[in-house]
Structure formats: C-alpha cells, structure tokens
Design a protein that fits this description.
Length: 402
C-alpha cells in the first residue's frame, strides 16, 4: 500500500474514534450522569487543556523523532482510556471522575499525535500541499461523520459496543502506522526548552505564520465552545431530545461535517484558492452570522441545516488556515510551528468551553451564541486593520496559475 494511502487510512481511524468521542463524551456527562453545563464545560476543558500545555513538547519531539514511531505508540496507548471507559461501564462504575481521567489521558495523546501527523503530511504531499490538506480535511471530517453515525446507534447497540469499536479503530491506526516508511526528521536538536522557544520565535518573526496562529486562538475561544458545549444543550433543552439525545447530537454534528467536507471538495475541484487570507476572513465572518442564527432557529431540522451552513464556512477557514501554515513553515521547524498553530486552537478551546458553560447558565443555550458571534466579527475587523491577512496569497497556487 502506498504511503499516502497508509497515512490517510491512519487519519480515518483516529478521527473515526474522535467522532465517537465527540458524541458520546457530552452524552455521558449530560445524559447518563445528568450533569449541567458548568460540569460539561469543565470536562471539555480537561479534554483539551493537556494538549494545549504539552503540544510544544510534542512539536519538538516531531522535529527530532521519526513521526512513524510516534503514531504507532500514541495510537496504541490511546486505546487504553477508551478500554477503561468500557470496563467502567460494564462494572457500573462510570462516574464524572472516570470521565475526567479519560479526558486528561486523551488530551495528552493529542499533544503528541497532532504535530507528528501534520509534519508527515508535508512529506507525502510531494509539493501539492493545498491538495493534500484538502484530502486530509475530507478524510478527517468524513471519518468523524462515520464516528458520529456509529455513536448515534447507542440506543440500539449500547455503549459497550461503541467504545469497543473506538478501541479497535485506534489500534488499527497503530497497525497502519507500522507499515509507513521511516522518515528522518529535519530538526537538528533534541526536544528541549530552547528548541520550543525557537519554534515560538519562528512564528513571531513571520506575519504569514503569526496572523493565522493568532486568529485560530480566537476561533478556539469563540467557535469551539459553541460546537462542543452549547449545541448539545440546545439539542437537549430547547428541542427536548430526551432518550434520543446521543442520536440528535450526532445528527447536528453530521450536518456540520457534511458542510466542511462539501467545501473542502469544492476547493479541490477549483484547483485551490490563491487569495487565502481573504477567503479565511470571509469564511469566518459568514460563520459568525450563521452561528448567531442558532439563537433563533424554530425547529431541530432548521438547526441542523444551520450547522451545515456553519460547516461550509468552517471548511474554507480550516483549509485556508492549515494551507497557509504548511506552505510557510520551514522544514527544520515544521513540527514546532504546527504545534504552535494547534496550540492556538487548543489554548482557545478550553477557554471557550468553560465560558460557554457559564453563558448557558446565565442566559440559556440559544442566547449563549450571540456574544461569541459578535466577538468573531470584532476580531476579524481588528485583524484586517493591524495585519496583512486580507492580502495574503498562496505562492504555490499563483505559480501554478502562471
């Protein structure tokens, strides 16, 4: 099997497992344990905070250690927390504390697998970075949709079967990574504090790296909480999902991912976007207005269609953001730069999750989307005024057009 197929196969196994987690984790907190928005916000923060704190260590490791070895180890070890949830469920010992331990363990795993996987993408892309990012985006969110679909079967096949499937997916990813060719990292220094600081300096000195990284922190704060915390409570409390909570959470997430995959495929058919910065800003602005509409949708299916539109904007924004970073990062620092970029997402994510929990308690789930939507518009106006984001172009797409 070609290395590219092995890579994307591993991507599918990881994000299929993450898709299961995306639905079942909030379902276990809000449905099985019947806890409130503050507890869910804290649990989501526990899921992403370790990744944010450790991802620079993971990035420095990816610049120094063969990414294949990292993928094998992390895929295998990540199956153990899911196995722990399965055992706790079978023993009727599933508690909030068990879920927090699961969240922390998966957060640590993410810190090492994200930069290792993203660094390998450039090596398999063979110069066609935007196309590779597009395929990776389709694989990522297509696999998550499969995970959502599997999690939606919870009322029919039970939690145990679903978590067993998550373990199987993660360990299959380890087997696929085992067949990847070895790769000699470009980083000359071992993981250290100096190497990590050097990664931050590289991002800070280049506006093409600094601007999208700063923006992605705002995306984490303003959009992440809505996706991971507010939507489950809109589904549960506004549209009264009842015993179909896991299914309905899966449905709105599937609609969202369909929007992401649709726009990623459209970008691929177009042959790439040259004005990447402009596309990024417009996509995020569109997403802010769509997110505000969550506060007014009258039915569950109207909410689902709105999340599809939100995903369309997100597909453009994520593809442009990742492409700008991949094209601009020097090979010697790529793992650390990608780690800094992901640190922006993950640093904003826990803040957004916790803030969303409190906004729901203060204003209710539908009103909780209005402040983040307004904040996104304000952030975009500020970024366009103080940075070159509006004029950023892809040098590779421009060269291909010439």
């Amino acid at each position: 099997m070609r290395p590219m197929n092995l890579y994307f196969g591993g991507l599918v196994t990881w994000f299929g497992a993450i898709g299961i987690q995306t639905v079942l984790f909030p379902f276990l907190v809000t449905g099985q344990l019947a806890l409130g928005p503050a507890e869910l916000g804290f649990a989501m923060m526990a899921l992403f905070l370790p990744t944010m704190l450790l991802i620079m260590v993971g990035g420095a490791t990816a610049d120094h250690v063969d990414g294949r070895r990292i993928l094998i180890l992390v895929h295998f070890l990540s199956g153990l927390p899911a196995l722990g949830i399965l055992i706790a469920h079978l023993l009727d010992a599933l508690t909030y504390e068990v879920l927090i331990i699961y969240a922390l363990a998966m957060g640590v795993a993410g810190a090492f697998i994200i930069p290792a996987r993203d660094s390998l993408l450039t090596h398999i892309a063979d110069g066609k970075i935007q196309k590779a990012v597009m395929i990776a985006t389709i694989c990522q969110f297509g696999a998550q949709m499969l995970g959502f679909g599997l999690a939606a079967l919870e009322p029919y096949i039970g939690i145990a079967v679903i978590f067993l499937s998550q373990v199987a997916l993660l360990w299959t990813g380890a087997l696929l990574a085992l067949r990847l060719p070895t790769h000699e990292p470009e980083g000359a220094t071992a993981p250290s504090l100096a190497a990590i600081i050097d990664g931050f300096r590289e991002v800070a000195r280049d506006p093409r790296l600094l601007t999208p990284t700063a923006m992605v922190f705002g995306i984490g704060v303003l959009f992440f909480g809505t996706a991971q915390v507010v939507l489950p409570f809109i589904v549960r409390d506004v549209f009264d999902a009842g015993e179909n909570l896991a299914r309905d959470i899966a449905i709105v997430n599937i609609f969202m991912m369909c929007g992401i995959v649709f726009t990623a495929m459209l970008i691929g058919r177009m042959g790439g976007i040259e004005r990447q910065g402009r596309a990024l800003v417009l996509a995020l602005g569109f997403g802010a207005f769509v997110m505000a509409s969550f506060g007014f949708v009258p039915t569950f299916w109207a909410l689902s269609l709105a999340t599809f539109a939100w995903g369309c904007g997100g597909g453009v924004a994520m593809t442009m953001n990742r492409t700008i970073i991949q094209e601009s990062a020097p090979a010697s620092h790529r793992g650390r730069i990608l780690a800094v970029f992901q640190m922006g997402v993950l640093g904003g994510g826990p803040i957004g999750a916790l803030l969303s929990g409190f906004l729901i308690e203060w204003w209710g789930p539908q009103n909780a989307v209005l402040l983040p939507a307004a904040g996104m518009i304000a952030m975009l106006l500020l970024v366009c005024l103080v940075s070159p984001i509006w004029s950023l172009r892809s040098p590779l797409v421009s060269a291909a057009a010439d």
